[in-house]
Write a structure and sequence with these properties.
The complex is a heterodimer of chains A (115) and B (116). Chain A is mainly β. Chain A contains no helices and twelve strands. Chain A starts with a strand and ends with a strand. Chain B is built from no helices and eleven strands. The interface between A and B is medium-sized, with 23 and 23 residues.
């Protein structure tokens, strides 16, 4: 079945450091790929997405490129801030036999940014 | 826009009782809602897909008689954990898809269930 693998955390960085959180997927076909962020005490929010190979999703300084050849969708940010401290989930869709697409999530990576 | 709420945010119940969790899309209509379970330090596990006006589709290994899902309107889905046991203690999260919209799911803040 489909699966998403992301690096385990926690990841601790100093403010303004470069961030990479690795994510790879295994799927039949080519799923849409997403990064969700969960801030403390809040629900998951969509951070960015890519629907086909070579697409780059970007938002709030975060970027991820859908690499078909390596089946990866690594999340990057050039300069993290304390406010980026959260749990980040990589996810991919697999089309149901019905009308709704299901999301398969990675285990989440906790990011802690310190001053 | 696209806000999803859950109620309650936390609930403690005794073993053997039932508890209902509500998921509401506040400012949009959702033909499809999803229910997930999140274990500590683990990912979200899809439990079931709920379509308005029809029976929910459960994932393999999820007991439909234990986790009753009702999607009676375009803005409300409920999950009832029947005859709860301590092993049902978990964080339950719902999400909703816009009617006629894209694949994007909007997530609720979650409900922490503790069964004593």
């Amino acid at each position: 079945g489909d699966s998403v693998t992301q690096m385990e955390g926690p990841v601790t960085l100093s403010e303004e450091a470069f961030l990479t959180i690795n994510c790879t997927y295994t799927a039949t076909g080519y799923p849409s790929l997403f990064w969700y962020v969960q801030y403390p005490g809040e629900g998951l929010q969509l951070l960015l997405k890519a629907t086909k190979a070579d697409d780059k999703g970007s938002n709030k300084g975060f970027e991820a490129t859908y690499r078909k050849e390596t089946t990866s969708f690594h999340l990057e940010k050039g300069s993290v801030q304390v406010s980026d401290s959260a749990v980040y989930f990589c996810a991919g869709t697999a089309v149901n036999t019905g009308t709704a697409s299901k999301l398969t999530f990675g285990t989440g990576t906790r990011l802690q940014v310190t001053l | 826009g696209a806000v999803v709420s859950q109620h309650p945010s936390r609930v403690i119940c005794k073993s053997g009782t039932s508890v209902k969790i509500e998921c509401r899309s506040l400012d949009f209509q959702a033909t499809t809602m999803f229910w997930y379970r999140q274990f500590p330090k683990k990912s979200l596990m899809l439990m079931a897909t709920s379509n308005e006006g029809s029976k929910a589709t459960y994932e393999q290994g999820v007991e439909k008689d234990k986790f009753l899902i009702n999607h009676a309107s375009l803005t409300l889905s409920t999950l009832t954990v029947t005859s709860a046991h301590p092993e049902d203690s978990s964080f339950y999260i719902c999400s909703a898809r816009l009617a006629g919209g894209s694949d994007e799911q909007y997530f609720g803040p979650g409900t922490r269930l503790t069964v004593t």
